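B., you asked whether I could sanity-check this one before it goes into the benchmark set. Here's the sequence:
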Amino acid sequence: MGPTRTPDFSTPLLRGNQNRIYKVTCLFYIMKLLGIDEAGRGPVIGPMIMAGVLIDSELENELRELGVRDSKLITPRRREILAEIIKKKALSYHIVIISASEVDAYVKSVNINTLEAKKSGQIINQINKGLDKIKVVVDCPSPNITKWRNVLLTYIKNIKNLELICEHKADRNHIAVGAASILAKSAREKEVKKIKKKLGIEFGSGYSSDPRTREFLDKFSKKHDGDGIFRKSWQTWKNHIGKKQQKKLDSF
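And here's what the prediction gave me:
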């Protein structure tokens, strides 16, 4: 980005438009971008993480040049490097850890999309001080964007200075959301490592598609049933427990 040139307001043509030009310039620089995304929505083991990252247009360009984008498109090593850069350079960021038991509670009583709306609202409320214009972009988990946006609005305390956009695949279309996805994914992986260290067992990614995760469920689900790491509202868990119970019945 080249140096900013100050208009010469000494000429009659520009003097008359001085206030208008000043207002437009200020609006350009005041506008900030807040991206929100999640990681770990689908696994049967471990927490879901949501993150928000506040940047401005100058930092947006810098992060773009560094390769910030959807965390799923970045190698783990590069993701950790970018996560540290984002934390240092962001105007603000906020990470929310949602336990497996809290996910279960919402799945059983309402749904996981409402949980994401609530946590997105918490992130916005934490970061938004109501002073500057902020364009908020949230990666929408629901097929019905309008309905989900309306639910999200009920959890936001101050909407006056916000422009709220909810869209699908926002982590691929907006640098701020890509940055949030990187922080969320990085935090999720750290939480999974903590669980593995505590149990002393390698169980893979925690997703039901992972053979190591399925093997862990087969061998240790009963032993670690009360540790709060399993999402018991997940069909994977229900199917697994059903198989265990059927084996018990067959043994009689």
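One thing to flag: The longest helix spans residues 175-199. Otherwise nothing jumped out at me.
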